[in-house]
Amino acid sequence: MPEATFRFYEELNDFLPRERRKCQFSYRFRGDPSVKAVVEAIGVPHTEIDVILVDGRSVGFDELLSGGERVSVYPVFERLDVSPVIRLRARPLRRTRFVVDVHLERLGRYLRMVGIDTLSPADSEDAAIVESSLIEGRIVLTRDRGLLQRARLQRARWIRSQKPREQLVEVIRCFQLEDGLAFFSRCLVCNTPLESVSSTAVGQRVPASVRVSQESFTGCPGCGRIYWQGTHYRRMRQLLDQLGLPGEPVR
Questions:
Q1: What stretch of H or E contains 51?
Q2: How would you list the strands of the sheet with 49-54, edge to edge?
Q3: Domains of the chain
Q4: Among 3, 81, 145, 150, which is disulfide-ready with 28 (CB 3.0 to 4.6 Å)?
Q5: Parallel/antiparallel/unpaired status of strands 97-100 and 70-75
């Protein structure tokens, strides 16, 4: 059987068994498969990859391997200028619009809380999530490695942490979103940007005690929910302060 030498860099090692992390290793295969097929057979989803070098030459996913090659695989670059290197796509994967799978609903709510455009689709089927990503140009956030290996999926990140609060910080730091946070500017449920609503216009949609005690309200044009700075708001604000996230509430 032919074999090639592989080396995966940075966070791509998270997908590898310990003995293959941060080192070169040989991998055998049958026939002349594409580099994408071999990389995913090794266990690294194509959605996490931005640059592949075969014998020092930048290639696409459809490059065929015959044996004897040295393959270097790099993750999506966030902080380095690699524009001279041919990437696997016409433009970078990074965009600040997301769709989360059913297992990351709490993360989706947290992302909307800090003003990041994030959908939690009612249809939790993998095919529906992939379709949302393709149609709207959204990055899929998931912990499901099977979803990451969907052939049509182009933009995705495997979330490392299992704790929603840590996941929020992970996403913000990975995609360098610190400067674009706008706390409480989106509906926590449907993701629609909120608008200011006068206390008169609120009417009977909030309890009478709230209308008396609160001076400012925001409303969701999408689902009609009304938000104000009550005890729930203060708890969420405390959470954001504990996580050390920069940003101010939208007035």
A1: strand 49-54
A2: 25-28, 3-8, 70-75, 49-54, 57-58
A3: 3-75 (3.10.20.30), 104-251 (no CATH)
A4: 3
A5: unpaired
